Amino acid sequence: MHELLLFASVPAHQHHELLQQLAGLTAMQPRHRLERRLIFKAYRKPGLMNTRVGASQDLQGLELQRLNKMLNGGMFYTQVVGPVAETDFGAKPSSSGDAHVSISGLEDQSSPPYSYEDQPWKLEFRDIPEAGTRSAVTARLMASATLPKGDITSPMNAWGYSFITEYVVEGDVFVLNDIVIFLHRVLLYPTGAQESHGPRRQLPAYRELSPLERTGSYVLQAAITVQDGGNQEMMRTASQHLFGLREQLKSAVRLEQADRLSLDTRAK
Amino acid sequence: MSDSFSLPLRPLTEKRDHPDTLPIEIAQINARWGSFRDINEETLRAKIEEEKNRDSWSDEDETDKPAEDVDTTEQREQLYKRRAEILQFAMQAHMEALFALDFVSLLLSKHTPRQAETSMSSFLKQVAPLGSLNAEIVNPPPKSDAAVQDVKTVSRGWRVQNFNAAANKLLNSATRLEGEVASETKYWDEVLSVKEKGWKVCRLPRERQALGVQYGFLEATPIFRDRGLAALRRGENGSLRLDKGLAPQKTRTVRVRVKHRGQLTGCSKLPESPPDTVSVERTILQARDTVYEEELFHELMREARIMGSQGVTTRQNLVRLPISQEQEILLDLVDADAPADDAETESTEHDVLADGLSHSIRILLAYAHRQNLRRRTQPPPALSNKRRHTPEYQLLRPVMAYLQHSAHVRWLESFLKDIYGVLRAAGLQCEFQAAPFSSVSLPRMHPAVPKVEALVQQFLMPFESTFSGNLVTPQSSFRVKIRTNPVTPPFGSLYDISVDLPHHAHVQPPSRVGLQSDAAAALTHVFKLDIVSAIAAHGSKSAPEGTKKEGETGLTWEAAYPHHGELLALSATGRSKKLKVTLSRDELTAETYSMRGIDGHGQAAGTKPPSHSQTWKSEQTDSQPSLMDFVAEVSREQS
């Protein structure tokens, strides 16, 4: 699958107004979305690379060649995305003592505690945007897959990915025909005492998160996914749709192509 | 209007301070008519006559009158002549203008030769050198006082006249503006009142300077969604007018009729015709209703086409929905103000049903709209060549499923009532319970789904009704489930019969029965089997008591051919007896035949008349011996 994107920067003071404009344009109420995003980096497992064995290369089967290519090809960072609710933040873990719960129960009795074991995950792979495209949109290869619930580090490790860092994305989603409009910003966890080597099992209070961009500005992302990236006509239609949106939003924000290298996901 | 306007626009016409003195007037009269001495009566009369006969246009009329009589050729000639004249005049004017231009150019050529040269004619350039004409200001000779006075008076007159004209124009336009303002105010007041009622007022996308009101449904099919916008135009006097473009102005509505045995027995209520005072609000509402109704019918048609396999037929403006053998539903789109054809409707028996149906299809369309919104706001699938097919809304299918289901339930209930009536008449104690629409349970709602949607969702799921009851012998029971699936195949209603017969543990009716007659046959058979085993059980139980009491050897019945309802009894004397039980919806019959030999099937039972026979019917009132009494009696007689 391919993804076509346009981006715009939205200052914090324009956020509320733009939300209303988008709600009017798409004729729908915004869907609030909160996501944990974990960054994993692929690494080469030792002992899996010595497939090149002298002159026998010519004799390698097609399957083996493909495997070789996969193993020795480019290494990428990938994201693991898990939806969370605002009540999950700052919630006490379910395993805490009874006395503790009764004290804290005053403030937040109704919300169930955040359970890391039940956290659903989704793997999102994004390639570096295509270079040298004439069209004024960012196009890149993408793929998504559902992952098992709960602790994700061990399966990811087994697949050759190591945990790097994590952050939270907060925003609102609109849908306009085929275009998904995501007005979001990145929130960072408080730089606390323990820098863990894995995903957090509990989430800090929501107000403790700080935006990555100090001014609190948002990013507007308009995206269309295309099933077959080789189909030029479909790609053109998708870009046309995006350009149409750009024209419609011209008086509010300036949607434009992103810098290709800033979206580079290759691991060096 | 101009009188009431208070702006002092008109010039002040001051009265002459001193009117003309008499000597001046006398002098004027003398100058015009001659001396007073010449006046006598005749000349005055002649003058008056002359004045009367001649009006100001008489000269021209005299020349024009014969022109009307001339024929066409002359007319044409005259036309040409006039045209030539006009041309001549124009040429002359042109020439004079050129001369003037030459003159001014020559005059200017002294001071600005370059510029003046461009506007000089070539002839003038040849004959007169540049700058050969000069102009100087000379002092005009002083005018006489009288001439100065004249000029002053004339120019004053002109000025007054011009002021008057300007004032008139201003006052006229003020009047016009005032009217305009009034009608604009009225228009905007009405627009505002429309907006305050909650309608969405916006600019028209195609016509940016016009206002429109959106009354349609955002989630409707695109063609109907786009029709939900109409322009708000200003009428002559500023009243608001709804301009729907080419869409028909008539109010249309979907009508539901019920046909029972070929006769129309019910018709849904049409919306009452609007009152005479047509307000804009009213018009908008009417337009909205019409759009909704037309969409409803469009969707009904679309759905009806995929339901051809279930016997639904469509005409240009009609959908026919068969419900049962004798009932069908007709749906059509009619004008709301069309006169109701009372002649066709035979009775109003099913009016309530038709009304209920018309309400439910509308509710279902609203539900489909909500589903559309839900689908639209979900992240879309990746773009591909395959076009997303919008599924047909579920409008007719749930209605049809409900009606069919309730028809089946009612039939089964009446069938069981009949059977149980017969059994009770025969003195057999048993009962059944009906739980129609047991699948519809309203408390079972998902909290995330809005109440309204959850409520409708219940009626889109398969309908299920259960009937259960005990049979004659203890511990035996039956259970019938009727399932009707509105959306996914298999369509139609299915009977799921399960029985628990301790005496015939292996007997199970077919699990899915589609036809009413098959279900009836299966149930009757089960009942018959049970009665047979009840008689057998009863016999074996009562026989020892009978020997004690009366010293007789009562017969013991054995269920020889239970599936045919036949029992055999063998007495000590070797004579055997056969009891045959037949059960139908209307009656239960028990017949006994006396036989020789052990096996009952060796002789044809039909050839010999039964020795005893008894029939029970559900509606009979006179007391008869019960089935068990009858059996006990025939057992005793044997000995």
From TrEMBL, chain A:
Q: Which family does it belong to?
A: Belongs to the Mediator complex subunit 18 family.
Subunit text: Component of the Mediator complex.
What is the protein's major site of localization?
A: nucleus
User: What functional role does this protein have?
Assistant: Component of the Mediator complex, a coactivator involved in the regulated transcription of nearly all RNA polymerase II-dependent genes. Mediator functions as a bridge to convey information from gene-specific regulatory proteins to the basal RNA polymerase II transcription machinery. Mediator is recruited to promoters by direct interactions with regulatory proteins and serves as a scaffold for the assembly of a functional preinitiation complex with RNA polymerase II and the general transcription factors.
Q: Name one GO biological process term.
A: regulation of transcription by RNA polymerase II
Name of the protein described by the UniProt record: Mediator of RNA polymerase II transcription subunit 18
- Supply the source organism for this entry: Aspergillus ibericus CBS 121593
What does the organism's lineage look like at the top? Eukaryota, Fungi, Dikarya, Ascomycota, Pezizomycotina
The entry's localization annotation reads: Nucleus
> Any keyword Transcription regulation?
yes
Any one Gene Ontology MF annotation carried by this entry is:
transcription coregulator activity
Question: In terms of domain of life, where is this protein from?
Answer: Eukaryota
Q: Which GO terms describe its cellular component?
A: core mediator complex; mediator complex
Keyword Transcription in annotation: yes
Keyword terms of this UniProt record: Activator, Nucleus, Transcription, Transcription regulation
What are the start and end residues of every segment in region (Disordered)? 89-116
From TrEMBL, chain B:
User: Ranges of Polar residues compositional bias?
Assistant: 610-626
Enumerate the subcellular locations listed in this protein's record, separating them with semicolons.
Nucleus
- What InterPro entries is this protein classified in? Mediator_Med17
Keyword Zinc attached: no
- The regions listed as transmembrane in this protein's record are none
Return the GO cellular component terms, semicolon-separated.
Answer: core mediator complex; mediator complex
UniProt-annotated stretches for the region Disordered: 1-21, 50-75, 594-626
Which first-to-last residue range defines the signal peptide?
none
Q: Which Pfam families is this protein grouped with?
A: Med17
Q: Which GO terms describe its molecular function?
A: transcription coregulator activity
Taxonomically, the superkingdom here is Eukaryota
Per UniProt, the ranges with Basic and acidic residues bias are 64-75
GO terms classed as biological process: regulation of transcription by RNA polymerase II
Give the record's keywords alphabetically. Answer: Activator, Nucleus, Transcription, Transcription regulation
In the record, the note on similarity to other proteins reads: Belongs to the Mediator complex subunit 17 family.
Summary of the function given for this chain in its UniProt record: Component of the Mediator complex, a coactivator involved in the regulated transcription of nearly all RNA polymerase II-dependent genes. Mediator functions as a bridge to convey information from gene-specific regulatory proteins to the basal RNA polymerase II transcription machinery. Mediator is recruited to promoters by direct interactions with regulatory proteins and serves as a scaffold for the assembly of a functional preinitiation complex with RNA polymerase II and the general transcription factors.
UniProt subunit comment: Component of the Mediator complex.
Q: Know the name of this protein? A: Mediator of RNA polymerase II transcription subunit 17
Which organism is this protein's natural source?
A: Aspergillus ibericus CBS 121593
Gene symbol? Answer: MED17
